[in-house]
Amino acid sequence: MKKIMLSLIVFLLAFVTACSQESAKPSSSAPATAEKAETKPEGAKPAEKKLPRVAFVYLGVAGDGGWTYEHDQGRLMLEKELGIKATIVENVPEGADAARVFEELAQKNDIVFGTSFGYMDAMVSVAQKYPKVTFLHATGYKTAPNLGTYMGREYQSAYLVGMAAGKMTKNNHLGYVGAFPIPEVIYTINAFTLGAQSVNPNIDVSVVWSNTWFDPATERQAAVSLLDKGVDVLAAYQDSPAGIQAAAERKVWGIGNDSDMGKYAPDFYISNPKWNWGPYYVQVVKEIMEGTWKPGSAYFGSMKEGITTTAPFGKNVPQEVKELVEKKRADIMSGAFDVFQGPIVDQEGKKRFDEGKKMSDEDILNMNWFVQGIKGTVPK
What we know:
Blueprint: H1 2-24, H2 34-37, E1 54-57, H3 67-82, E2 87-89, H4 96-106, E3 111-114, H5 120-129, E4 134-138, E5 147-152, H6 154-168, E6 173-178, H7 183-199, E7 204-209, H8 216-227, E8 233-236, H9 242-249, E9 253-255, E10 273-275, H10 278-290, E11 298-301, E12 308-310, H11 319-334, E13 344-345, E14 351-353, H12 361-365, E15 374-375
Parallel strand pairs: 1-2, 1-3, 3-4, 4-5, 5-11, 6-7, 6-8, 7-15, 8-9
Antiparallel strand pairs: 10-12, 13-14
Helix pairs in contact: 3-10, 4-5, 6-7, 6-11, 8-9
């Protein structure tokens, strides 16, 4: 009897267990697992694109108050607008060291900006080794599938500043300290001269070369050599304010470059061409992120696009001079006036461009001659 009762209890326990297991199984209409049951919430945002790693290579330091300072301001705008934290490398000389720096950066970054003309060959070489990295070179002319160039029409700003200089001079003798005899400097000096001649056909412009970008001692010496010749307006293309400071000591009007240099010689400052790189840096990085950047593209931005402008006029520049310049600025911005439109005659008296003919970008970017009215030579 005990055996019968024990068997019955075992049978009942087995039956209950089986029923419990059967009720625990998922039904065919219910999701098998919680993971499979998940659905994307309606209207959910797609995953954000990964931000590119960006690096900048500077010839000088961000605090130079000129060329590098303005590029660094552009870098800061890029970071703010796109949320990117860029790498910067300062004081990179043009030469073998530049190639080493670009190669190191190419191993860790997606986009590399080189901000000096002399980096060109180094960037071309490194770009060939790293085809998946995008390289962008300021002021150069060599491109590749993953290497583009960018520059602005600084000559438009230089023309306006030249107009002011032509109105401010008393003896019609202007001076200009050029950096290196490369097209960007040559066409800027030419535009400055044409602007001055447009309001004062009797002026001449004496040019000397410092062969520096940032060397205050050398640049000051070059400026003094022109001041000793009696120029009463002095312009300079370098990154330092050494030239306009030397001019102010002689009570001579000064014109700087790249950034607002008025604070260095406030009583004798006219203005100067000024850069604004931020909009370009934001635009081109966006294009690369979106896949719309054109391989090997060459950007040549205008005053209308905001890439170049003029620094505020000095406190002692007459109102009528300011108004004259602003009127011409409006003509340039609207396209009603082109700086390099013929007739244009070189310093040897040869007509380079006939009446009404405009110089092409290729003509401008390969300029290696001075316009009539300039005293000085372009080294071969």
